[in-house]
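[Discussion] Sanity-checking designs against the backbone

I'm trying to build intuition for which residues belong where. Below is a structure token string of 475 positions. I'd appreciate it if someone posts a full sequence so I can compare it with mine line by line.
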């Protein structure tokens, strides 16, 4: 069992101010796989003090020094890649091929992309004789989730370090193992003392104190909309900047001219990726009513071909959900869908046959869903797809936008101009035409209750920067 009870503060692994042991559960076995300690106010104070001291010098480092540092981090990460992937699989149940092929891959991608962007990033702009400069905002508190643990850490840490900020990371207490290894990577790469700090803990014990702390200049949060609003409320008295990447209930509009087989199959597979535990998952599939029966048959077949099981098995496509709490929540929503009259195409309550141990959910498809049903409104965060029929394109767009969220959307069509016109009318931060993914350079973030600000690529630098106008600079 891993002993990860220390914190990383001011370039050292240190004991918590007050030990508060917390067990980390492997969701595939329901057994304890590690022990961490939950931090508190004293630990946050210590980390913030270290980050403030380090900011004075680190904020003055050259572009070249920071590029070199990010490249060193990426080089060590590549050597530790297998360790990162194994930790992700162990802590949150990601299937082996997903943990390495996507999950761990994203952490490395963000480090490399930040270094690439930094080489030519425009920190200065002249407006006539006046100069506008972009400067690091200061000490940044970063709160990250369990569902894409290293992705969310790296897409915050990399741009913050790139522009000259110092940080305190609070990873999820549910899945903290990969964060520990990420911290070891940065330590080995030579990140200066105090520039990067990590304090494990829960929301009330660390997240609240970090959000309220007058020594923190900016908070970057990824997680539920409920928790995101608490971070914003706690940060408000000190008027610090708050950026949030929150929940989603993303529509996938299959247009009349789409290849139905391809569109439905990719939608089902996309919903089951990461066991449905992605905020941008295509969880609402909008299908022409006249083709709903065909779509149901395709979804039923694809689900039947989906391999659910041990994350360590190379064939596994869907592993367990992260915890018993999540499992119970998903079961309740599946039962609610049945009670509200949705048609159960496949799956349903309970665990898959032969998988009684572990937090496994039966991949589930509902059809004949109306957009006012609970399963169409709430983020289920499990392998549960809802199919909503529509009678006209205008109705499909109305349904797609009828949600408090606006993180992502998907449009499927064989006519690219048609897809573009529909995409332009959807209120969401990321639109995927025919399942295309933009890569690490394209900004990620949402409208409405899916958050504010953007991560990834050059746009991900923006929230970690302040603008200073020096008027008369050139006179």
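Best answer:
Here's mine. Compare freely.
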């Amino acid at each position: 069992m891993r002993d990860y009870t220390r914190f990383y503060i001011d370039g050292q692994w240190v004991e918590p101010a007050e030990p508060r042991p917390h067990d980390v559960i492997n969701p595939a076995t329901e057994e304890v796989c590690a022990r961490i300690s939950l931090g508190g106010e004293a630990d946050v104070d210590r980390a913030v003090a270290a980050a403030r001291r380090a900011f004075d010098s680190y904020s003055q480092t050259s572009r070249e020094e920071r590029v070199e540092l990010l490249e060193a981090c990426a080089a060590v990460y590549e050597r530790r890649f297998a360790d990162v992937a194994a930790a992700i699989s162990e802590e949150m149940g990601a299937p082996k091929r997903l943990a390495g092929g996507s999950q761990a891959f994203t952490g490395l991608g963000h480090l490399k992309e930040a270094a690439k962007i930094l080489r030519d990033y425009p920190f200065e702009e002249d407006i006539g004789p006046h100069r506008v400069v972009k400067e690091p905002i200061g000490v940044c508190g970063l709160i990250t989730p369990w569902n894409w643990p290293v992705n969310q850490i790296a897409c915050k840490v990399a741009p913050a370090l790139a522009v000259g900020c110092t940080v305190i990371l609070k990873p999820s207490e549910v899945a903290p193992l990969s964060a520990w290894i990420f911290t070891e990577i940065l330590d080995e790469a030579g990140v200066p003392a105090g520039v990067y700090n990590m304090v494990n803990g829960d929301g009330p014990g660390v997240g609240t104190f970090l959000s309220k702390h007058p020594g923190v200049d900016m908070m970057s949060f990824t997680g539920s909309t409920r928790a995101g609003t608490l971070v914003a409320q706690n940060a408000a008295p000190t008027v610090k900047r708050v950026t949030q990447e929150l929940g989603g209930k993303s529509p996938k509009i299959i247009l009349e001219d789409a290849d139905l087989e391809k569109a439905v199959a990719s939608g089902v597979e996309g919903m089951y990726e990461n066991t449905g535990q992605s905020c941008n998952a295509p969880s609402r599939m909008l299908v022409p009513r006249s083709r709903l029966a065909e779509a149901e048959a395709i979804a039923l077949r694809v689900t039947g071909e989906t391999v659910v099981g041990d994350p360590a098995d190379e064939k596994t496509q869907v592993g367990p959900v992260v915890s018993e709490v999540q499992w119970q929540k998903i079961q309740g929503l599946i039962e609610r869908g049945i009670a509200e009259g949705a048609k159960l195409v496949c799956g349903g309550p309970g665990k898959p046959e032969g998988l009684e141990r572990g937090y496994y959910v039966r991949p589930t498809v509902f059809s004949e869903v109306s957009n006012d049903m609970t399963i169409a409104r709430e983020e289920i965060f499990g392998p549960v797809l809802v199919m909503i029929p529509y009678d006209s394109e205008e109705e499909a767009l109305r349904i797609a936008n009828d949600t408090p969220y606006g993180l992502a959307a998907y449009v499927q069509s064989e006519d690219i101009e048609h897809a573009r016109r529909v995409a332009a009318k959807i209120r969401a931060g990321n639109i995927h035409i025919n399942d295309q993914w933009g890569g690490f350079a394209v900004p990620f973030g949402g409208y409405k209750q899916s958050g504010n600000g953007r991560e990834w690529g050059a746009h991900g630098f923006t929230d970690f920067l302040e603008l200073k106008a020096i008027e008369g600079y050139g006179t």
